[in-house]
């Protein structure tokens, strides 16, 4: 619990809440996430991040299974998040399987505030078997004005592709919320952090913005998830890190109040030192 | 020393040799680098990476000092590297202060093979006080065909800007050589690796290519350098890491032989999973 007396007028408390969804059981998972949101509120959170696919689980064998666990943006899980966000005057970002027009299925994340849905993101980079269950996202990387700064979202493996963080930074994001279902990396040396933490640190540092990434835990159809949620400040280093089970981490951050300090960082300014004319960012030319 | 019997026909041994240059003393520094190259050759190296600004030192107060320690591409240090590369049939990449036409001064790196200079790179992202001593690089990120694969270069802080690695990957690089003068990060938590290692791991992993980064050690005008050179394989994880003093690290890698395995990596394919249409990679739009 953060003492409100210590907070500047633009500071907020961001929380990442780890859950272990039940594959296909939207009702149970929705209750689970609402309970997690209330737990984060009790810790003083203003913004709560939930895992990827928090509403329906992740390990779908095919599109039929994925569709059965998907819902439109007006679905029951998002309604429940809107309700609890309004009730407690907080913001929630969580992942859900989205059923869209024409039978499209997206691995999506929503940003919900006290007045309802504020932003929708559809995972651009599908990982592994997700290609069997979802269509690739088609909304780019939206950035939304909120009372606590400009906020964008990405989902899990998107963080492995540096254009994700960069696109959000170019659009002015102060804070990135990253619902995730992080898995173990098969080659991680014992003395190195999880690859997910390296990607969050590199993304936050190179883009001089805050990142709050919430990952699920548990095992689903043999796939293990590591939890290990992380909140990084704009230098990339962690403000809070979770273990591998049910847990809520919180950190106080100041996305708006830090703008000048971030832009004028006396050590590294990798967002502002870019030289776009020198880059090649198109399709791979040779292999 | 790597047993040649274990090596595939396309494998090479890459080395990173740490030196502690003397500010402004090109002759002593050239001798120092030639000795380091011979040391790496004795360990079986085919490709040797030297630090950034290995010929003249780094901490120049102004352009006059930088100019006094700079040399053209035909200068004595590069001549010495050509000589030793020819003599031992090896390749060398090292950093040098470059005096170019019209009084321009670049923080440059060269790739020298047995037949002489093969590629020139000029640091695109100047860090901190380097802006007082050098002009920003104007050659983009060249990638050169060699007998052991397509090779590109970047220098130190370039690695903090993900477009550097990405531009090289887009141009088809199998291997990035990174002469560096890494400094301590003021906020590094005790249980996290140096930020430089995170940037190398993220760059190598997200671009599915090998990275060999050689950093200097020592203290120059109060600026400490951490050594800690690192060779990463195409998963990003370290094959070899150095300490903070005089040291040569080596690793066997197979940039050409791994092309198919890299492109078809069954776990993560972040270079090939890119979706360029979804990105915004221009100038920052808002802050």
UniProtKB/TrEMBL annotation, chains A, B:
A single GO molecular function term of this UniProt record: N-carbamoylputrescine amidase activity
PANTHER family: BETA-UREIDOPROPIONASE, NITRILASE C965.09-RELATED
Name this polypeptide is given: Putative amidohydrolase
Keyword terms, alphabetized: Hydrolase
PROSITE patterns in UniProt: CN_HYDROLASE (PS50263)
Domain CN hydrolase stretches: 12-255
Keyword Hydrolase tagged: yes
Entry-linked InterPro entries: Aliph_Amidase/BUP, C-N_Hydrolase, C-N_Hydrolase_sf
Transmembrane parts of this sequence: none
Any one GO BP annotation for this protein: putrescine biosynthetic process from arginine
